[in-house]
Amino acid sequence: MYIIERILIDENNHEASVTCTGESFLITLKDIEALNIAEGDDIDEDTYQHLCEAVSRLACIKKAFEYLSYSDMSAKKLSDKLRSRFYKEIIMDVTELLKERGYLNDVSLAERYARSFYEFKHWGPIRIKSDLYSRGFKQEDIAEACSFLDQTDHRENIRHLVEKKYGTDGERLGMQKQKICAYLYRMGYLYEDICDTVNSMSDTDK
């Protein structure tokens, strides 16, 4: 048996310091409530193990906030970074908690990435979605985050890329049409949008 000798509550940090049979445990107030322990209680082995897990959970929360303070990241990327230090079940608990409290929002983060890639790098929808998937975002989150691309006319972006790389001379563009189309396809645009824009540009000055 184990004896709960002392419990110190820190309301400001939402933590509690528990002394149990000479050992100190720092856990969250939520876990204190869940464990339902008080000073002077005798606890069994099962409760003691839950107390140990609570220590790991708080440590995982603090490490997660440390990582998020450096940069925003998806739930998967955060989980991958935590995996070398904590058990899978603890990580799942913590990521769900962070989602509930708004510290992790994969759809919002993916949309910020998507808009940045589209507006500043001038990537097309295919490349943007592929990049987001490689960053660990789920397909359903990517679809929601990139929904604005389905309502966007991509010809202005395509025209910008062509003019920047190949110039504006319609005749020269016409001679390099196959090369230009291949480049734009690598940038992530749909074949139909590419053809419409490149054809209009190469015919302009004829």
What's the topology here?
Layout: E1 2-10, E2 15-20, E3 23-28, H1 29-35, E4 42-43, H2 45-70, H3 75-82, H4 88-100, H5 106-121, H6 125-134, H7 139-145, H8 147-150, H9 155-166, H10 170-175, H11 177-186, H12 191-204
Helix pairs in contact: 2-4, 3-4, 5-6, 5-7, 9-12, 11-12
Give a verbal description of the structure.
- The protein has 206 residues and is of the alpha+beta class.
- It has 3 domains: 99 residues, Winged helix-like DNA-binding domain superfamily/Winged helix DNA-binding domain (Arc Repressor Mutant, subunit A), CATH 1.10.10.10; 45 residues; 50 residues.
- It is 65% helix and 11% strand.
- It has 12 helices and 4 strands.
- The relative contact order is 0.08.
Short descriptors:
206 residues, Arc Repressor Mutant, subunit A
Number of domains: 3
Shape: rod-shaped
Number of strands: 4
The main pleated sheet reads as: 4 strands, antiparallel
Low-confidence stretches: none
The H-level CATH homologous superfamily of the largest domain, spelled out, is Winged helix-like DNA-binding domain superfamily/Winged helix DNA-binding domain
CATH class of the largest domain: Mainly Alpha
> Strand pairing plus helix content: what structural class?
alpha+beta
The helix fraction, in percent, is: 55-70%
Architecture of the largest domain, CATH level 2? Orthogonal Bundle
Helix and strand succession? Answer: EEEHEHHHHHHHHHHH
Give the percentage of residues in beta strands: 5-15%
Count up the helices: 12
